[in-house]
Amino acid sequence: MILYLHGFRSAPASHKATRLHEHMQGRGLGEHYWCEQLSHVPAKAIAQVEDALQRIGGSPTLVGSSLGGYYATCLAERHDLRAVLVNPGVLSYLSLEPWIGVLDNFFTGETFEFTREHIAQLRAIEVDSITRPSRYWLMVETGDEVLDYRHAVARYVGARQTVLEGGDHSFTRWDDYLDEILRFAGLAR
């Protein structure tokens, strides 16, 4: 099972979420995919995923993009799960502070207010250092215009790391890694 956690101001309709789901459906694995619209409130987003983990059971693999990677790290540590982290947020409570205010979701058009309380919730789930780096696969592109990929490389030292030159925050070579993600999750050979 794969639980896909989208990023800040994103949605299940994002390119990466859509392509992963389509790829899994094409391989007959569509029922092994979960992705819901996560709340813009960090504590609620974590609760949503923890509820899904409880319902699903077993040891699913988390795939998190940007803020979803930050969430995936927190949840992988709490529940001893594997996680694929795609251009993940490392210190999201710092990198998202400039975004405090009224925002809209890029895909749904929903307007919401991002507050200092949300920053405090992000700080509360910060993982100081990962345990068992073998659970993690970091995927970053050096051309990420939103987050400095070097922070993630340093945070996930010892983990499997795919560091690609160029690209951007969307992770432009996503489709090249879909089969490998399924293998990492134990869903394909």
Explain what this protein looks like in three dimensions.
The chain contains seven helices and eight strands. By secondary structure, it is of the alpha/beta class. It has a single domain (2-184), classed as Rossmann fold, CATH 3.40.50. The strands form two sheets. Strands 2-1-3-4-7-8 form a six-stranded parallel sheet, with helices on both faces. Strand 5 (101-104) and strand 6 (111-114) form a beta hairpin. The longest helix is centred in the first third of the chain and has 15 residues, at 42-56.
Provide the descriptors you would attach to this structure in a database record:
single chain, 189 residues, Rossmann fold, 8 strands
Distance linking N and C termini: 15 Å
For the biggest β-sheet, the strand order reads 2-1-3-4-7-8
Helix and strand content put the structural class at alpha/beta
Largest sheet: 6 strands, parallel
CATH class: Alpha Beta
Oligomeric state of shown chains: single chain
Number of domains: 1
Estimate the strand proportion.
15-25%
Average pLDDT: 95
- N-to-C order of helices and strands: EHEHEHEHEEHEHEH
Counting DSSP H or I runs of 4 or more residues, the number of helices is 7
